[in-house]
Amino acid sequence: MLGCKTRGFAFTRALLGIAADELHLYGDAAAVPLIQEMLKVTDDNVEVQPYGRLSPLVPLEVPLGSFSNIKTGDCVVTFSRQQFYKFKKQIQDGGKHLCSVVYGSLPPETRTRQAMMFNDETIEFDVLVASDAIGMGLNLNILRIIFSTMKKFDGVEMRELTVPEIKQIAGRADRYGSKFPVGGVTCLRADDLPLLHSSLTAPSPVLERAGLLPSFDLLYMYSCLHPNSGFYQILKVAALVDQLPLGLHEKYLFCLSPVDMDDEISAQGLTQFAENCAKKGIVWLREIFTPGTHQVPNTHSKMKEFESIHQVLDLYIWLSFRFEDSFLDHELASSQKATLIEDFLERLGCWPKPNARKLSTRSSLNSVFSKDTYKRRALGGSGREL
Length: 386
Description:
Shape: globular
Subcellular location: Mitochondrion matrix, Mitochondrion nucleoid
Main location: mitochondrion
Number of helices: 14
Distance between the termini: 34 Å
Domain Helicase C-terminal: 33-220
Organism: Rubroshorea leprosula
Largest sheet: 6 strands, parallel
Mean pLDDT: 81
Order of helices and strands: HHEEHEHEEEEHEHHHHHHHHH
Radius of gyration: 23 Å
Subunit structure: Homodimer; in free form. Component of the mitochondrial degradosome (mtEXO) complex which is a heteropentamer containing 2 copies of SUPV3L1 and 3 copies of PNPT1.
Number of strands: 8
Low-confidence stretches: 354-386
């Protein structure tokens, strides 16, 4: 992750900036030389402690072949939104298993609850359908990792999984302390097995570069040296806020905000927040967000819309911690975050339905964003307000 082009800067910032007397880093040995070089500059003492895997991971010689061969504890890995629910339906139609789902665009708290359901032996959700999000901080009782494909779209192109990606995902099988004595990893199709097996035995490429985002002080120094350069020239992702009457530090904070600019709704949310902040000084969530009657998403495309809306609510919360005097609807944003997404998963059979769950006490994300920005066909909709 340290060398990731889009997210690596966050790990570098944590490595160099966490206020702690002692910092423990866990990861692939391929990152060690670069980390050692970086920390020479800061005069930190670095101690490298190698760890071996505490439970065996066995590459299987036979592909799964069919979902009729699924067992309790299996995790099917895919990278397509449509495939998550397609595979889940196929597995559950067999009548032997219920599935939890875990993928990156689910809200973190929802991912965690889905993982907990899969781990809980008292609940009948005994198979997991997941993306590579399972490799990020989730402890799971997985018997076998089953790759449905060895390719993914990375935002630019469809490509084969890298050696580190394959190892990270495969390694989630039978983590130490799980209920399975041996973990296995295989593929859905036989023609994917050679890449899987070769990757598990290959060394990871040594990391040569780490992501880095300029600090505000560096941006300020640059702006002083180049007074005629706009913020867009200083930091390219600032195109949306460059022309707004905001201070350099305010623009910098907007650029650091957790927003997916490739997502139309999220990008529009950031734009409207920045414009309101610049023009009014106070950004009321209620001006662009109105809780209404409870409407559970009933299609996958509608689910995608509400995942985007959840990202906008997360963005508002993040900004409320940085602009305390401007983003004042923190509690409203926090209370509205995940209800529809969880109800959608419940409707699809990805959520238990205890009698204690009462939908009548929940607000919804109906009539969501303002007419100015969101009354349009975002994600191929019918022109309705999102």
